[in-house]
Design brief:
Distance between the termini: 22 Å
Shape: globular
Strand content: under 5%
Largest sheet: none
Structural class: mainly alpha
Helix content: over 70%
Number of strands: 0
Length: 209
C-alpha cells in the first residue's frame, strides 16, 4: 500500500509541478523540468515520501490518508517554490485552500466549516502581523511578505480545528530554519522565506492532529 501511495504522490506531484513550471516559465524563471517524467524532482519525491508515510502510519479508513495526501501536495509545492524564488503562486495556494475546505473534515473529523474558520483565522492573524511589520519596518525590507498571508490561509484551510497548532508548528519550524541559516552563513542579515516553515507546520498536523 505504501508503494502504491508513493506512486500516487509522485504522479500528483508531477501535475502540481507541471502547473507551477508553466507559471514560472511565463515569469521568465528557470524551468525545473529534468525529463519527460520529472517536472520537479524535489516536489515529486517529497509528495511520494509524504504519501507513503501517510499510508504506512494510517490506522483508519483509506480515504482518510488519501484526503491528507491531496491536501499535502500544494503545501509541498508552495514550500519548494517559495524557498527557491521567494514567490507564492496564488493559483497553487488557491488550490490548496479549495482542497482544504473540501477534504479537511475527512482528515481531522468534525464539521466541514472548520476549514473556513481555519482559513479565515490564518488569513486574519497573518494579515495583522503583516500590518504591524509594515509599521515597524517602514522603508525597509519587511519580515513578512503578502504571500505568507495566503500561505497561512491555505494552512488553516487544511488544518481546520487544528489551525492554531499548525501555525504554532510553522512558527517554530521557521525559527529553527532561521537559526540554522544564521549559524551557517554567519550573518544577521540573512533572509529566509517564512512560507516553507508554515507549510511544514500544516504537514505536521496532517500526521499529529
Amino acid at each position: 500500500m505504501a508503494a502504491l501511495a508513493a506512486l500516487g504522490g509522485w504522479c500528483l506531484g508531477y501535475l502540481s509541478a507541471w502547473v507551477t513550471d508553466y507559471l514560472q516559465v511565463q515569469d521568465e524563471l528557470p524551468s525545473a523540468q529534468r525529463g519527460p517524467l520529472v517536472r520537479d524532482i524535489i516536489v515529486q519525491a517529497s509528495c511520494a515520501v509524504v504519501w507513503a508515510a501517510l499510508a504506512a502510519t494510517n490506522d483508519g479508513p483509506w480515504w482518510r490518508w488519501v484526503a491528507a495526501g491531496v491536501i499535502a501536495v500544494p503545501l509541498l509545492q508552495v514550500a519548494v517554490t517559495d524557498l527557491r524564488h521567494r514567490y507564492v503562486y496564488t493559483v497553487i495556494a488557491g488550490a490548496g485552500i479549495v482542497a482544504g475546505v473540501a477534504l479537511q473534515w475527512l482528515v481531522h473529523g468534525g464539521d466541514w466549516w472548520w476549514a473556513a474558520v481555519g482559513a479565515v483565522g490564518g488569513f486574519v492573524s497573518f494579515l495583522a502581523i503583516y500590518a504591524i511589520g509594515r509599521l515597524l519596518y517602514r522603508g525597509q525590507e519587511e519580515p513578512l511578505a503578502r504571500g505568507d498571508i495566503t500561505i497561512a490561509a491555505m494552512v488553516g484551510a487544511g488544518a481546520g480545528a487544528c489551525t492554531l497548532s499548525a501555525l504554532v508548528y510553522g512558527v517554530l519550524v521557521s525559527g529553527i530554519f532561521a537559526v540554522g541559516a544564521l549559524i551557517a552563513r554567519r550573518s544577521r542579515h540573512t533572509f529566509l522565506p517564512y512560507g516553507p516553515g508554515l507549510c511544514l507546520g500544516g504537514l505536521i498536523t496532517l500526521f499529529r492532529c
